[in-house]
């Protein structure tokens, strides 16, 4: 039979871990209300998605060119197709991503 002290210790550890988890999950909602009126947070909401996508695009393009330097033209063409489709299709991201990916796959496999 397990020792009563170890069972009490385990129960206390689980309760403490649960309270910490609950607190960490509730904290963003508690601090969200005062931040809703912040101009800084509004600016972040406007610029962060584009900034994150730009960083992602640069990293992916750099890695693709570094992985196969002889096919830089395929990366450039697929990027141009992605941008063109995005701008011509009223900024439908999924459509532009699919078109650019398909273009890249076709060009690499030719």
Description:
- The chain is mainly alpha-helical and 110 residues long.
- It has two domains: 37 residues; 64 residues, no CATH class.
- The protein is 86% helix and 0% strand.
- The longest helix is centred in the first third of the chain and has 32 residues.
- The radius of gyration is 25 Å and the shape is elongated.
- The mean pLDDT is 89.
How are the SSEs placed, and which strands pair?
Elements: H1 4-35, H2 39-67, H3 72-88, H4 93-109
Domain module count: 2
Which ranges are low-confidence, i.e. pLDDT below 50, for 5 or more consecutive residues? Answer: none
Radius of gyration, in angstroms, nearest whole number = 25 Å
SS-based class: mainly alpha
| Strand residues, percent | under 5%
Tell the overall outline.
Answer: elongated
């Amino acid at each position: 039979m397990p020792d009563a002290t170890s069972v009490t210790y385990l129960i206390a550890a689980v309760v403490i871990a649960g309270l910490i988890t609950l607190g960490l999950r509730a904290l963003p909602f508690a601090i969200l209300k005062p931040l809703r009126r912040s101009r800084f947070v509004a600016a972040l909401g406007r610029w962060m998605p584009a900034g994150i996508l730009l960083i992602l695009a640069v990293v992916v393009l750099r890695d693709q060119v570094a992985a196969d330097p002889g096919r830089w033209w395929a990366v450039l063409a697929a990027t141009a197709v992605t941008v063109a489709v995005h701008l011509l299709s009223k900024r439908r991201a999924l459509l532009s991503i699919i078109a650019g990916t398909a273009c890249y796959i076709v060009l690499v496999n030719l």
